[in-house]
Amino acid sequence: MTTAVSFQNVSRHFGSVRAVDEVSLDIAEGEFFAMLGPSGSGKTTCLRLIAGFEQPTSGHIEIFGATAEGVPPYRRNVNTVFQDYALFPHMTVLDNVGYGLMVKGVAKAQRDAKAEDALALVALPGFGQRRPSQLSGGQRQRVALARALVNEPKVLLLDEPLGALDLKLREQMQVELKALQRNLGITFVFVTHDQGEALSMADRVAIFNQGLIVQVGTPEDIYERPQTRFVADFVGSSNVLPPAFTKAAGGPERWASLRPEKIMLLRGSMSSPHKEMNARVTVKAVHYQGASTRLNTVTADGTAINVTAPSSLGKFAEGEELTLHWPASALHIMESEG
Amino acid sequence: MTDSSGVTRRVSDALFRHPLWLLVLLLLPPLLWLGVIYLGSLLALLLHSFYSIDEFSGLIVYEFSLSTYAELLRLSNMDVIIRSLMMAIAVTLGCAAMAFPISYYAARYAKGKWKALFYLLVMLPLWSSYLVKVYAWKLILAKEGIVSWVAEQVHLTWALDALLSIPVVGGPSLSISYIGTFLVFCYVWLPYMILPTQAALERVPGNLIEASADLGANPGQTFRTVILPLALPGLIAGSIFTFSLTLGDYIIPQIIGNSSYFLGQAVYTLQGTAGNIPLAAAFTVVPIVIMLIYLSIAKRMGAFDAL
Amino acid sequence: MRSDGTRPAPMFLKLAAFGGLLFLHVPLLLIFLYAFTTEEKSYQFPPPGLTLKWFSVVWGRQDIWDAMWLSVKVASIATLIALVLGTCAAAAVSRARFFGRDYLSLLFILPIALPGIITGISLRSAFSMMDIPFSTWTIVLGHATFCIVVVYNNALARFRRTSGSMIEASMDLGADGFQTFRHVVLPQIGSALLAGGMLAFALSFDEVIVTTFTAGQQSTLPIWMLNELIRPRQRPVTNVVAIFVVAVTFIPILAAYYLTREGEHTGGAGK
Description:
- The structure holds three protein chains of three kinds.
- By secondary structure, chain A is α+β, with helices and mostly antiparallel strands.
- Chain A has ten helices and 18 strands.
- Chain A has two domains: 3-233, Rossmann fold; 239-333, CATH 2.40.50.140.
- Helix content of chain A is 26%, strand content 32%.
- In chain A, the strands form four sheets. Chain A has a six-stranded mixed beta sheet, sandwiched between helices.
- The longest helix of chain A is centred in the middle third of the chain and has 18 residues, at 167-184.
- Chain B has helices at 7-17, 19-48, 67-72, 75-108, 112-127, 130-141, 146-153, 157-164, 178-202, 206-214, 219-248, 252-255, 263-271, 277-300, and strands spanning 52-53, 60-61.
- In chain B, strand 1 (52-53) and strand 2 (60-61) form a beta hairpin.
- Chain B is globular.
- By secondary structure, chain C is mostly helical.
- Chain C has a single domain, classed as MetI-like (MetI-like fold).
- The longest helix of chain C is centred in the N-terminal third of the chain and has 34 residues, at 62-95.
- Chains in contact: A-B, A-C, B-C.
- Chains B and C meet through helix 1, helix 2, helix 4, helix 5 and helix 6 of B and helix 1, helix 3, helix 4, helix 5 and helix 6 of C.
């Protein structure tokens, strides 16, 4: 498989701030790749390095085998969907979409036809004569997508493109984007701070923290087998258990993660079927969430454990004593301390 | 990748690889103009204030000396400085008093179309011809002008005469008195006070005033303890203009006022007919220093945010 | 501000506010009235009679035409220079962060922060030191200095409101620096530049303080008016010229107001 984007020890420093620090990364052609991390973790800077808006302080970037350093954005076969969409307010939707073709010198008739096609692709046929200000947030987002896709880029960069949309629209766009990427076969690089978005759409996910990539893998890898405490906590708010606890619960003396939804619980003094993997806890707080209830509990030695329990188990009270138990396979021993 | 021919593309590439060149290219022309021509002449002028004039030949002696500044401290020259300062203070206070109700009304009560109209009605006199405005007041204040006529119609000539007979500020007619000079200064600089004051008042949230009333303050207390402190940065920002403009003006006191000199006139006469550039330069240092002190006080009071 | 606006304003506030506005506008209206008076030796009120003859007198006066032509010429050139230099300066200050940027933006507003007389006398002594004779260009030099500030302020405000990602989007879509300037930047700042240019023209057309120092024996329209004010000959003629000056400055100011209305205001710029 061809490598679409390759980072080799890439750093980008702003003064003393290391926005991106010695990152190495390969994104394959045709891949839907997500960059996930909290704000300020360096994911957007990585995207801007691919687009050409930033230049690396050190290291080497290749796009389809060609050196990218010093190549201006307008000479890269890469297009971006901006977080604020960055539509040109003084142009119609059609002229916005046709902009890339216009500056390349494509004749007006051909340009308009292609722009109409692109608008049809994003389910906005016939919107060409409107102004961006006359569109809703979701429609603007689609125009921004069409404007990028009309140039037939080899890599499409999306910077938190769904961040400004409401929940329902966001879920719909997730499905559409995924389908679009499959049909077009273009490499998508997608930046987000929403782990649900990254896990549901991407083929592979890179987790960023403080300018570093802390883990790259498939969504299953990331969710089931977090390599560091940061990943375990950031992706799906896993319980991070200290070595002493892991040992007492029957595992090796190592840091481990345990998903709240994999924990079962017994009320009162019933005994557990998983004799080796259990813990006695006291309920500290109860968060009713509809179908499920989230419990913050704590063991006698002070380890906090969050549990997601089906609401069908009935009401829980603060101070109630519970026995938690889980299958040995649910406990994930982490490779690194980080 | 895309077409790499074309001179503009290659220039664009070069500027992309060297963003500093672009910055230099953009900054060089305005910097040459303002930095060299404007700042250069300003510094050359200030340098002149350290030279002196030979009393017998009337020629400039190009040697460093503080004698020009010593001359500045002479009674007759100090008189001019103090007179200008007093006028600047009076005009600033007068403008503030007149600007506040207009700004307050525009910020709190005018809405939609009316607000736009209000703004325009303040903007137009601000930008319209300075000389025309001064000239209009010559018509109004002249001995045979409108004020005298109105006073006569309503049988208040005695009041006007009483006003004009006040020592120092009075005179033979309004157009030849300090009162006249003061009025015209206030008129010409008033919009400069209204705009920043209105901007500052716009930023006072209405619920703050309600909160004050809710806590039992009467309107007077609310005004003193809530509205005035919040409007103060705007008033000070406006006063920067009224103060600076009054100090530097030499045309208004020349056309409307008795013939005593103000700073601007002194500078104008000294550099012109008297040919005493060093003393003229020393005189210009006075408003610069006063304005620098004034600006640093204003900055500390947060007036720059209201500009 | 808005929550209690339904309550009517107190009477004294209304009176003070509208009184203030009247104070600002009545004197300008009087200029119009006096242009029609038959009395030419004094400012007698009310005018003893009304006439239109002063308009034809102005029409026939070559000195007024000469002064007007000089004013138009100076204002046009100064505005053109200001448009180029002011836009360059605003682009640099708004886009890039560099050492000394704050001092630079201070330098760019200095010509209006300091009294005009200081600009005037500085330029005059510089001209005499370097033996530069007075000409149209010496007047332009002085005017452009404060016109730059007006354009700079307008352009800077617009640059700050224009999203930076728009320029990146253009480059991303394949447009080089020049294409981006032509198709994206210029349409974005165009109306601000037009407004700034119009204000600069109005300011230059009306300027008298700096001009008295840089004009020598030449006479712009405001200089002509100043001379008439100090040594009046036919007083109503001055009024006719004043009406003309008001018209020439009001129109661009109104136009500039409507061009920048959607954004922030352009006021606060001194002379």
